[in-house]
Design goal:
Layout lengths: L1 H19 L11 E5 L2 E4 H14 L2 H4 L4 H25 L5 H14 L4 H10 L4 H21 L8 H13 L6 E11 L6 H19 L4 H8 L10 E5 L9 H4 L11 E3 L2 E12 L4 E12 L7 H16 L4 H8 L3 H4 L4 E5 L6 H8 L10 E3 L2 E14 L1 H32 L2 E3 L4
Antiparallel strand pairs: 1-2, 1-11, 3-4, 3-6, 5-6, 7-8, 7-10, 9-10
Helix pairs in contact: 2-4, 4-7, 5-7, 8-16
């Protein structure tokens, strides 16, 4: 009884706030579709998110998915997002306008568009710059909240990485192969009745039939899947066998690209998987360069011109037979390498500043550069040798660590969001 009274009071209080803020307009566009703790979600906000969801779909798929198929899923996601944004507001977290603009610039560049062209695309899709910026700001706030509540707790030890790599090596099959997998879940309730199980099985079979008849996997996922990534089209990305959920692994390793599984039953419901493609793990070879240099720094007494002239004089002395190492010890102002005759040893791509590396890469073996300017001063560079190194194992180790971090973070976020949702007051009014 107390709980019911509390819910009624909260609802009444929020309605008063909404009315005072002008949220309850006389038309149905601004009616409340959900009350979320101290906030509300309006019909026009839901319409905007559903619209954006449709716009992310390929044109040929839009007609295949009805509004009712995705409206409830979109609203539930908005509820989860609103709960996190309320935490951000209470915590006083803000995203500077410069960060938002930088993010939009990156999105435009990723789509190979200028800023002006990107704005034109938004306008064509009926999205204002203001609403797009708000969407970006909210995404950044959510990531920051999740990071503060979860990511700092996610740590991967060296032992875990080694154990993971060992598991990859010991598992059967070709460990160089990665699988691009899609997943759809038709959930059944806990302690489901035979009728509920049969209904879910029939739904799964109908989806499989649609997929085998050429329907898009992402369309079926968005319209029907109960998995957490349903609105992303059910795409699990590229995985090696040991990285997959144990339920899926025995089926995936026997499938060929484009194959769709039968309905796989588990305590949580019926699973449908599709193998989009496979790929092999190629070797990663990098070219290491053995290089040495002489550095002249710029100061109040040494101008750019003087530094260049000094290096040109040293180059001529080397060409005339003097030893590079001896001159580097006597003249180089990079004291760390000067004691070794200017030797920087074997360096990998990306280890040195760009102007230095670009000049170094243009040199032949034993060739000496013209004076090269960097933020440190002016350099005289000589390449002593080049060799290729197999960095495959280092890359696999980095990938293993990233995979473990993502797996832990995703699981922690899922638990935290479920707890956040369970403890929140949420009232749906979608069909009112």
């Amino acid at each position: 009884m107390t709980s019911l009274k509390y819910s009624v009071l909260i609802t009444s209080f929020l309605l008063i706030i909404a009315i005072s803020n002008g949220a309850l307009a006389t038309n149905s566009v601004n009616r409340i579709v959900a009350i979320v703790d101290q906030g509300v979600i309006l019909q026009n906000q839901l319409d905007e998110q559903v619209k954006q969801m449709y716009q992310r779909l390929p044109v040929e798929q839009r007609a295949s998915i009805s509004r009712s198929d995705i409206e409830k899923r979109v609203l539930e996601r908005m509820v989860i997002t609103e709960l996190q944004l309320q935490i951000a507001r209470r915590s006083g977290i803000n995203i500077p306008e410069a960060e938002i603009n930088a993010s939009i610039d990156r999105i435009a560049k990723a789509n190979k568009l200028s800023a002006k062209e990107f704005l034109a695309v938004l306008k064509k899709d009926g999205i204002t710059l203001k609403s797009f910026k708000k969407s970006i700001r909210n995404q950044m706030l959510v990531r920051r909240i999740q990071s503060s509540f979860v990511h700092h707790e996610v740590k991967v030890s060296e032992q875990e990485v080694q154990s993971f790599l060992k598991l990859l090596e010991q598992s059967g099959g070709d460990q160089s192969t990665e699988y691009h997998v899609g997943h759809i879940l038709i959930a059944t309730p806990e302690n489901a009745s035979p009728q509920e199980i049969k209904k879910a099985k029939n739904k799964a079979d109908n989806i499989i039939s649609a997929l085998t008849n050429g329907k898009k996997f992402s369309t079926q996922s968005i319209a029907h899947s109960d998995a957490s990534n349903a609105l992303e089209g059910g795409d699990l990305g590229w995985l090696k066998l040991p990285q997959m959920p144990s339920l899926l692994k025995p089926y995936v390793e026997k499938m060929s690209p484009s194959n769709v599984s039968h309905a796989i039953q588990s305590p949580s419901g019926f699973h449908i998987i599709k193998l989009f493609d496979t790929r092999g793990q190629e070797k990663v070879l990098v070219t290491k360069t053995h290089v040495r240099h002489i550095l002249i720094k710029i100061n109040a007494l040494v101008s750019d011109k003087i530094a260049q002239e000094r290096l040109l004089g040293l180059k001529q002395r080397i060409v005339n037979g003097e030893d590079f190492s001896t001159l580097a010890r006597a003249h180089s102002e990079d004291r760390g390498s000067a004691i070794s005759g200017g030797d920087l040893k074997w360096v990998q791509p990306g280890a040195l500043v760009r102007p230095f590396e670009e000049a170094m890469n243009d040199l032949g073996i034993d060739e000496i550069s013209q004076p090269v300017q960097s933020q440190f001063g002016w350099h005289l560079i000589q390449v002593l040798g080049r060799k290729q190194q197999d960095n495959t194992q280092l890359m696999r180790k980095a990938q293993a660590r990233a995979q473990l971090q993502k797996r832990k973070a995703d699981a922690a976020i899922e638990v935290w969001l479920t707890k956040l949702r369970d403890e929140a007051y949420v009232e749906y009014r979608l069909n009112n």
